[in-house]
Amino acid sequence: MNAIRTVLGDIEPAALGVCDAHDHLFLRSPALTGPQLDDPAEALTRLTAFRGLGGQALAQWTPFGMGRGVADLVAASRATGVHVIAATGLHQEVHYDPGTLRRLRRGDALAALFVTELTEGTIAGTDPGGTPGAVRAGMIKVAGMFHALDDHTRWVMTAAAHAHHATGAPIGIHHEMGTAAVDVLALLHGELGVPARSLLLGHLNRFPDAGVHRELAAAGAYLAFDGPSRAHHATDPWLVDSLVALAAAGHTSQLLLGADTTSPGAGPGAPYLLHTLRPRLTRELGDAAVDAIFRRNPSSALGAPWPG
């Protein structure tokens, strides 16, 4: 039976509740400019506001080596009662120092890292704020490039596929400006054998090609529309239209929404999903579809038949 692996332990999918399916409470990288998400008090304030609007769960897609703040995720989850899912995985090459990448390229070290973080817990010394051996990741995060998959991407996705086959963990994918999703699907699903229903294809609102969206949906993957009203991605005008079109085509059960907050002030964050987008989507799609997008779909997409 599937379970959702949160930072406080495994829960039944039905217990997940209203979910922000792609966000960040903590995120840090030398490659990111401006203020970064590394303030536990600020993270707690945002999660509390989300909870106050009826939010019950949040999936943090921050991968290995990017300041996941594991101990603070645990504290925030306990303080608010919000289920929080942490991620293992690796982002684009630009976010990592060459020494770290050389170490992870030895043998099957990367796939082994992913499996360990999914099954045993975070590893001492690998992530500032981590709690060694105590907190297990509940998903894998990987990333494509702008209209392309480079060697780094293929290496990381191959390791992610191995980790999925060992654990059943879902894989969330950052698509740069929403591009290369068809190529990612061909690699992870077509070549590496990851079931499409274990793939959460992110940032599709940034590339509003209805034909591509239908192609991805027809394969059976989850389609994540995340980062609404971001300061540098004005995607709201077509986000709702894309969701309405996919629902009309029979793909309501594959739609996910997330705030994808990447820095303080970059967007209104998780509360916006509930106080602004949810009422509009209810008017456009009806209560049943909105319940699917916020509750039923994430509970299915984020579950896995964890070993042991």
Automatic annotation (TrEMBL):
Hydrolase is among the record's keywords: yes
Signal peptide stretch: none
Cofactor(s) recorded in Swiss-Prot or TrEMBL: a divalent metal cation
Chain residues that bind Zn(2+) 1: H22, H24, K141, D260
Keyword Hydrolase (UniProt): yes
GO MF term set: hydrolase activity; zinc ion binding
Binding site for Zn(2+) 2: K141, H174, H203
Pfam families referenced in this protein's UniProt entry, alphabetically: PTE (PF02126)
Cofactor: record remark: Binds 2 divalent metal cations per subunit.
Similarity-based family: Belongs to the metallo-dependent hydrolases superfamily. Phosphotriesterase family.
Protein name per the record: Phosphotriesterase-related protein
